[in-house]
Amino acid sequence: MIETVLTIGGVTAAILVAISLFISKAVSKDKYIGYFPSFIVALAGGVFIVLSALAGKADIMGLGYGGWGIAFLFAAAAGILITTILDSSANAEA
Known about the structure:
single chain, 94 residues, mainly alpha, elongated
């Protein structure tokens, strides 16, 4: 099960980084809208975690709601970190 969580989290993180960098390049440098996709996925991960406590057992592609929540929270954290590093190095004036 841990392999599925890491796979889904990694794929979601890669998609988030691509979307965030595209949005960051499309808007001005002083806007923070490029980080919103990761915040939305983190919110979805929190919803899945809460849903795992409230709902009965469900199995979606080998993971329960808690596994999906953990994968989305991992993806959001990795997406924010990678986007921050790439965005700050692109905007550095040294």
